[in-house]
Structures are given as C-alpha cells and as structure tokens.
Amino acid sequence: MAALYEGYTLCGLVPAQNLSHSGIQGIEQERDSDHVVVTDSTRSVTLYKVSDQKPLGSWTVKQGQSLVCSAVFNSQTKEYVAVSDNRVIRIWKEEDILLDKAFKATVSSDVWRVHCVHGGEPVVLFQRGAVRLLDSLLSAPQQPIEEILVQEEAIRWSTNIVAETQQFVIFTTEQKGDHFLYLQRLNPNTLQRYRLEREEPGLGPLSFSASYRDKHIHLLYLYPNGHVYQSVVSVRGLGTEEGTQALPLPRSLLLSLPVGEGLLEAASAMVLDEAHVAVVGVPHPSAGAGKDFLCIWNTNFQTLQAGKEMAGKIYGQLWCYSNKLFIPHGKTLSVIPFVCPKSSLASALGKLKQAKTEEKAQPSRTVETRKTVCWLTTAPVEDVEKEVEGLLSRSDIQDLQPSVGQLVSVLVSRSLTDPAFYTPSTLAQLVHTQCLCHSVCPDLVLLALEKKDYFLCQLCLQFFPDIPEAVTCACLKAFIRNEVLQTAYSDNFLLPHLKDLSSQHVVLFLQYLQFLYLKYSQDAFPQMHGLRSPSLTQIMDWVCLVLDAHFTVLVMTPEAKGLLLNLHSFVKSQVRLVSELGKIEGSLQELNKMKVNKDVGQYSIEIIELF
Amino acid sequence: MGEFKVHRVRFFDYMPSAIRAMAFNRQSERLAVARADGAVEIFNFSDNYFQEKVIPGQDSRAVEALCWVDQRLFSGGLNGEITEYDLENLKPRYTVAAYGGPIWTISSNNQGTMLALGCEDGTVKMFEVLAEKVQFQRNFDRQKGRIISLSWHPSGTLIAAGMMDMIRVFDAETGHATHRLLVERGVGASKSREVVVWSVAFLSDHTIISGDSAGKVQIWDGVTGTLLRTHLVTKWDVLALSVSQDQSSLVAGTSEGTVIQFQLISSTVGQQDKEWVRTRTFKNHSHDVRALAHTETAVVSGGMDTQLVVRPLLDKVEKNTQESSLRKIVFPHRSLVCCAKKAGLLLFQFPEHLELWRLGESEGHGKPGDSLTVKTKPEKLIQLKRKGEDHICCSALSPCGGWMAYSTVSSVRLYRLQYNNNNIGITKVSRLPKDLCSVHQLCFSSDSSKLFASSSHSSVIVVALNQQECTYLHTLKPKSSSRQPVHLLFASEDGKWLATANTDCEIHIYNLDKLKLHCTVPVYSSYPTAIAIHPLTSNLVVVHADQQIFEYSLEKKEYTEWSRKLQKLGLHSLWLERDTPVTHITFNSRNPAHIILHDMFMFCIIDQSLPLPEAKTLLYNQMTLRSVPEPERIRHSHAFKICKNFQVWSSH
C-alpha cells in the first residue's frame, strides 16, 4: 500500500502577499536524485542537497531583471541554463559565483521555457510554439523563429519527455476557451496538434502531468470539478499528418475526486506510476471541506492510499523526483518521501503484509533486498548481522527507507517466533538510520522490552515520532529514563495508563524526578547537559502528571509522605521567589516611570510654592 | 508663604577644567590646585575647604607641577618656564625660563632653599630660592631620557628622579648619579613600550617608592639600589603618589580612577619588622587620578573628571563628624552668572568668553508644580570672545543691561550695549582710566551710573559712566593695612552704600555719597562667601564659609536684634553640615522680611518674621507643611524655607 512518510523542510518560502503564489517557479533535478535546483518566481536559483536540507549554492540575476522559467541542469555539460527577461539565455557552471559574468545570449523571440530531461539535451520552447535544441539555437542566437500558434493562442503548460530514443516536447495551449495539445518530436522534427474535449462550459484544466510507458504517452489532467482524465497517444505513427489540423483527443475519466463545496482552485494531480496519482489541493474525503491535503490515490481501484494534511495554504504546485514529493505550502517547501508498492487488490485494501511488497523505483536494490529478505528467515545470527551491515553501508540512506522497513519487520517477526534468534546490534543499527517509525514495525519496542534490551528501547523512544502512549507507559514501567520524559505524549491519553503503575514505582519515579529537578534548579546552565536531557518544564509536567494520577494513593502511602512534604516545601519556596521577583519588577517599572517624568529641557519656567 | 515663578536655566554649559597638579601646604593648610587650562586655585582646608583664591589661566601656560616654598607658590609647565604666583594680586609674579624644554616636575628641598626641576632634555636643574626671585644654580649630569618625576630625600642631600625605564638617584651636592634602578616594563604587548616612572617618593629611611605606567607601585632600597617589593595595582598607569607627613601611609592614584592606600605596618602582630602593605582602595573618580595630596586626616585627589575629592581617613578622624564625611568639590565657590534684573538678561562667564542671554517669557498661569508654556524662548544675544592670552577673571553686567565689563589679570574691558528692537549694538569703551588695569572684582551701581572695581591692597576704584565715556572718580581705601584682594563687592540699591569683603575676612562699608569709609564690620574668623545690603532697612547680610549668617545694621553700626537672636540660638546642625557655600544673597521686593540665598544644591528664603528653627525642629520641613491642612501650617513653620528642587548657580 502506498504511504507518505514524515516530511521535512527543504527551505522557507516568500509567498506573494495575497498567498496567490508560492514564490517558487520550478524545481528541477540536478546531478542526482538528492540534488535539486529551485528557481524562485523572481530572481534567484538555488541548489539544494535534499537529504542534508541544505543549500549548496545560489545565483541571482540583477535587480530589475527577472527569470522567465525554471532553471534546468544539463547533466552532460554540468551547466545550468536559465532565461531572463524573456530573451536572454544564460548558461553557467556551479563554480561561477556571479551570474552576471557568466555566458549570455539574446535570442530573437520570447522564450516560454527551457526543458531538459536527465541525461538529455536542453530544449528551448518559444512562446509562439517553436522549439529548438539549445545547441543549435546558440550556434546562431539571432536566427529567425517561426510562429506556430495562431493569434490569441497561448501556451498554458509544457514538458519534455524521452520515449525510447526520441525526445518530445509536449505543451498545451488555450485559444478562446478551447484547449489543445501539441506533441513536438525532435530529430526528425514532427508536430502533432490535438484538440481536448470540452468539459463543463467555462472549466479549463487546472493541471497536466505527462508520462511515458509501453510506447504511449499518457497525459493526465485535472479539472476544477475534481475530474481527472487520461488521454493516451501512441508515439508510433506520429508525423504522418503534420499540419494545423487538430485531431480530437480521446479521453477516459480516471478519477472523480471529491471537491467539497465549490470548485477546486489551486490543485494539481501528478502521475506517480501506472496505478498511483498524487493530488494536492483537494479535500480529504473523510476530513471535511479543507483543501490543504496531499493524497495518493490508486487509479485502478479508485481508493485513497495515503493522505497528509499540510500546514498552511497549498498553492497547487507539486513536483516529484525519485520517491520524493516536493510541495510548497504556507511558508515552507517540504519534501515528503513516499512509497507506491505494486498495487494489488489486497494491498489496495490494506490486507497485504508489508514484508511481501516490492519496490519498483529501484529495481536492483529491491531485488537485492528481496533476496536478502528470503535468506534472512533462515540464516544464522552472525551472518544476518554481517549481511545487514553490508547492505546499510552500501549507499545513501534515503533510498533505503522501504528496505529498512522490510528488514526490520522480517527480523522482528523471526525474533518473535524463534526465541533463540535476536540481533540487538543489527536492530539498533536499523533504528539508527532514522528511516523507521513505530507504525512500520509496531512490535519492535515490545520485542525490545521483552528481551530487556533497554538500549534499543531508548533508541526507539528517541527516534520514533509516533509511539503510542500505552507503549510509552510500558517502557516507563520497565525502566525510568531521560528519554521517556522527552517523548511526546498527550495528557488525556497518558493519564489512564499512568494509573497502571504500582505505588512503589510511582514513589521511585517521583524521587527520580525530584532529584532531576533539584539538580537542574541548582545548576545555572541547564543547557550544558546536552540535547538528550529533559528540560525543567518537562520534568515539572511529569511530576504534575504522576501526582494527578496517583495522588490519593500517595497520600495513603507512608513512604511517600516525606517525599510529598519535600516537594511541597520546594514548590512553596519557588512560588515565594516568583512573587518576590514580581514585586521587584513592579518597583523597577515605577523607577522607569519616574525617570521619564524627570526629563526636563534646557529651559523651563516653573511655579513652585513654599509654605 | 507664597508662590514663585522659577526660570530653570540649563543652557549655561560651563565645564570645569581637568585637575593637573596639586600641592598641599601643611603649615597654612592651603591646597593649591592647577587645572588643565592653566588656572591655579587655592583651597583653605582650615575654613571648610573654601576656594579662597583663583588665579586665572593663560593660553600658553600649561601647569604640570606645583610646589610650595613656605608661603610662596611655584609652578613649572610644558612651556619650559618656572612661575611664581602673586597670591595677593592673584596673578603670576614673574616667570623664569629654565632652558631645558618642557618642565615635567618641580620639587623643593625641606629647607626651602632650592628648587629642583625635571626637564625634557634629561637634566635636573637646580634653582636657588631667593627673597624676590629664583636663580639658576646648576645642572645635574645630563641623562638620556626626560626627567618625569623628582623627590628630595628629607635630608636634602639626595634626589630620586623618575625617568623612562629607570629611576636615578643623584647626589645633590655633586650632581652626579649614584644609583640606577631599572624599572621593569609591562608584560605582553606593552613589553615593547618604555615604562614611564610617573611619580617617586624618597623617604627618610632611604626607601624609594615609585609609581609607573605598567601599573606598579614599587618599593626600593635606596641605599643598595635593590627592589624590595612590587605591588601591581592596576592594568594601566599609576600616575601620582603622595606620602603622609609621618611617612607611615602612602597613596597612589591610577588612571582607572582609583586611589590605593599603602600603610607601613608589621605584617604579623607583635613583630617589629614593618613593611608597606596595601590596605584600602578608594574609587571616587570616573577618570584618571592625576594629582594627590596626603593630609593629616584625609586623601585629596583630583584628575580628569575635574572633581576635587577630599576623602577622610576614618582612622584619623572622629566618626560621624563633619570632618568624617566625603567631600566633592565640583564647581567654583563663586558666582559666574550675573543677572540684569530690570532687563531680564543673564551674563555667563567662561574662561574664554562671555555669553549674554535674554530670558524667555511664559504664558498664562499655572498651579504649583506646573511648568508654564514658554511663549518666548531664551535667546543668546552676544557671545564675546576675550582678547589676549589671559583668561577672564571677573565680569559684570549693569542692572539696566546697558553696560558690560570684564577683566583679566592684565586689562579691563568695558562695553556699551544698545538694544533697538531686535538689534543689539555693542560698543567698546575705548579710553578707560589708567588706574583701571588689574582688578579682581567688578560691580555696577544699581542705577548703572558707576562702575566699582576692586584693586590691589583691598582698594576699590570708582568710575563714573555716562553715554560713551567713563571717568575716574575716586579710589576707596580701607583703614586697615590688608594686602589681600577683595573678592566680594555689593552696591546697595539706594546707591548710598558699597560693601567689600577681602580674603583677610574684613568687610568694609563705604558711604558713596561722601566717598569715604563708613564702617568696618567686626572681623569674623571665617570667609565671607556672600554679602548683600537690604534695600529698605540698609542692613548688611553676610554668610560665611562656615555657614554662619550675620545681619549688621549700617545705621547703628552694630549687629541687629535678629542676628543676635540667631547667634544666641545657634544655627540648625543640618544647616551647618551643608558642604557648599552660599554664593548669593538677594531680597524679596514683595516682602521686606524675606532674605533669599542659595548654595549649589538648594535655595532658601529666610522669613525674619517667623521663629527660628531650634535644634530639634525639622529643618527641611516643606514636605510636611505641604501635607498638613493650612491652619496647622503656622504651628510647624519656621524661618528657613528650603527648596532643593534645583541646582543653583545664581538667583535674583
């Protein structure tokens, strides 16, 4: 079943004042799947290393100039290409610091966009529909550019696709409410024009997404009424009837998304694979009318696979590069890793175990993992450890996410069934990758507790964002650590579980908390304790919670009496200190006022009275 | 009692000059202080630290060192000259060039026969002190670096000289150097900089104490020339040293503004061996302490922050007495502001120039505590720069605002001022009587027809003024043989009387109709700090440095009944404890029973019709009176109505 993982922020945004626009013009893949180039809507291009959430370089055109389209990376020459002020093509390398000093060439017609597929050659699409390969354009920048589009026809969207060896530029246009699709093949050049079927009057497509598979180009488009259509065009047999004649483009309704009240405004749909579509700006069917969701739908079974509410406004923009969705929302650009396992009814309905799923995007690794998984169920402990270590050291961790999930699940289930089998160091290593969460391997924490592997428990508590309160409490029962106190919890859920603690446990726990508190309040620099120490407020909150849960019991327990009295006097002294500080603050404020009144100028005439 | 309209004037931006050098005369208990602008001031420590004399500065005279020889005061400065001061006529008596470049230090032997000078050219120059002058005797062996500091051994046979990186000991007879004490430089970056020995002290037991620019106070054995002890007291410079007369206590002033005391005590109880132990640190200055004097009971310090601080040593004085309280002398003990009442004009006196301002006017009425709307802003009418090198020593503005005069030690200048609407005409009166050349105090008669100028031997020159010219009328001379200068002049409003007070504490009253001495007020032991004659009763009111108040009837030539009553009862202790002198007295034209006077921090209206405050009475009772209902006020009232809302330079 497809899943969206915990996202992270790539960078902040400066959206338009009325939030009509995210401030991002485009995101393009750079040298590999971990590097992207982000072009903002005005002047700058920034290179990010995604896994590090870190900018590596940034280039800006001069004040007054503006970038027309998203900058692209030509991986053959390791150069960036951008277009400023409609006609100026700029080319630079990563080591160039000043964009202004880099190469530029002015062309004779306004450019719409530059496209470049990974490993391919950059292509320039002009506003009036003409297409040139960048190299041939730069050999004579002022060459005449023909007009393909008729009057009042304008490009709405464009992309670039490589089908087998053929490079295609695909773009859509609008002319007086009619929408057209153009398929431009390069070398040899052919152009085919299709007319899109009309939807309800006045409704134009909100977004397009194109993909190539099985010798066909698949075009997916979303209308404001929530309809997602797919049109399929064969790449064979193109070019036979080149000309202005627009062929009708057949379509099929793929999805009918819930739109809530009114029409969709800022939304888009994007093809992830043959069965999955990512959609933003469309309401979640079970979460009311709010539109700020990112969802993955299965088109085969028309089921919602995964959904995530995005904080802040959604701008209807979405990009996808190798299992990561890039989505601007509110004032941030988030990266959300996802998986779309091969769909089957079972998985679509959530019945299939994770362990059996396969991963498509990375065939070699998946195959390898699959092999390992089979082998893991039988191999001896030492070999397992060696093998997993090898696997983990192989490449960067982001790609590992699905594999890690699988590995852990297998190991946990084997450990549960076979009491002799337990690989603490391997599990710890896997948890350390930070690719896991509790929901991926729900049995892991309990297994660790059962094996009394407190180190592993601690790691889980530290790294898992989604540990249920019941499990937290179970950990608490087993041992009392810093990490427990730092785990996120909700009072309401925790209280009933806390009640399960025995009175001895509670007293011990309270003593420990008191010790921590005293230690902290005596120390002038609590920050020195390092990141893994709980804060003073966290300790206090826990004291309150434990007291809330067990107050009656504690009052009746003779051993607890001294402890409670201590806590009481301590709290009393703190309250007194705070009230004294308040008084001092008051007096100091008065002093401030008095000073203001005393300020007299160079000269005044005053009335005084003597008695 | 009534409401008063107070003009709070804060645009007199007088800035005292930094203190450069100090010399204390133990015999007469006078402290001489030299300021950066070349002015020399004499403070009388036996009379409430009153600033009894001021010798104005001169542009070319930068005093670097001061030295008393008996009752004679000498200075040396960076202009390379020795100056002896005429303390009776408040000006330099003569100057002698030392021909050794800038003079850094000057020191006399205990016998008072010789002056030793430390010069820029590396020589110690000996001058013989003669009755009327000083005469060059000889040079000591010339050294490589400048001589910064000097100290005579009490026997008068040896002199220690502080220089760059070293101290030299000279034989005063032969002029040869006998010892060379190397002073260590500072650590770190200052290692490369020469260390300056800013101050040395040569004690009877041949101990030499030095203070230097590396922050050290060092104790040396002057016989063997060895270093005994180093006290690092500051990161910066030790600029000044002073030793008590019994040589058991020593103070060091630093550029951090601290003064550090060392005492010669035995480090362990009962042992005979004594050593110099750092005992106390005083922090009364914000900037460098440039000059120090160790008196019998106190440490006196001064420096860049311009304040003179008298810090009593609590083991030497009785606790909780006036002597035990810290005293800061910030501003001059005389008025630098002159007011032309009728014209609403103020004259401000600076060393370099005079400023004439017209007061603003207010609009409407207000209740006590209010500030009125200022309808017309105060206006600077004239800024008059003095002529010549000498600084202004006194100035006056006539009550009508039509005449303005100032004097330096060398000349008097008189100006006629004319006001036509918004134009001010200023004309210098060109020909002044030749007697009018060096005066100490100036004063106009109330009808602006006469100018009085105090001159030598306590005499007063009377000059008549009309339109453009002025003519000499008379010289008023006291019967006494006092040679001291007159520092206070007061002409009565009816034009009949002129009162003078001199630094011998004499007060003379002249009858201006007859142009002769009317009477002399019985001499009181403390300086008169302010005098005034009542316009209706012709009673003279005098306030002294010890805060005593007297009222003397000119008609009957005796103290008035009120004055006797006041003396009999005694002034309130809190009144006597004030530490700034009353510098001005005036009267309330609406109520003849009112005497208005002020010091630096308060002004007071004395209502002679009310009972005098007794010892147990609350002296500062204005707040109490304000809070009680009106009928009860009379029960709590007494004669002294004191208002401390303002810092006061002048009141009229």
TrEMBL record, chain A:
What InterPro entries does this protein map onto?
Answer: NOL11, Nol11_C, NOL11_N, WD40_repeat_dom_sf
- Give the UniProt record's GO annotations in the biological process aspect: maturation of SSU-rRNA
* All copies of domain Nucleolar protein 11 C-terminal, residue ranges: 382-480, 482-611
GO terms for MF: RNA binding
Task: Tell me the ranges covered by the Nucleolar protein 11 N-terminal domain, including all copies.
Answer: 1-338
Q: Which UniProt keywords apply?
A: Activator, Nucleus, rRNA processing, Transcription, Transcription regulation
What GO CC annotations are associated with the protein?
nucleolus
Location, primary (coarse class): nucleus
Keyword hit for Hydrolase: no
Where is this chain's protein located in or outside the cell? Nucleus, Nucleolus
By what name is this protein known? Nucleolar protein 11
Organism source for this protein?
Lates calcarifer
Automatic annotation (TrEMBL), chain B:
Source species, domain of life: Eukaryota
Which terms does the record give in the GO molecular function aspect?
RNA binding
> Which SMART domains does the entry link to?
WD40
Gene Ontology cellular-component annotations? 90S preribosome; small-subunit processome; t-UTP complex
* Gene3D superfamilies per the UniProt record, alphabetical: YVTN repeat-like/Quinoprotein amine dehydrogenase (2.130.10.10)
Cite the DUF7165 domain residue spans from the record.
441-599
Which Pfam families does the record associate with it?
DUF7165, WD40
Write out the GO biological process terms.
maturation of SSU-rRNA from tricistronic rRNA transcript (SSU-rRNA, 5.8S rRNA, LSU-rRNA)
Q: PANTHER family this protein is in? A: U3 SMALL NUCLEOLAR RNA-ASSOCIATED PROTEIN 4 HOMOLOG
Entry protein name? UTP4 small subunit processome component
> Which taxonomic lineage does the organism of this UniProt entry have?
Eukaryota, Metazoa, Chordata, Craniata, Vertebrata
Its gene name is UTP4
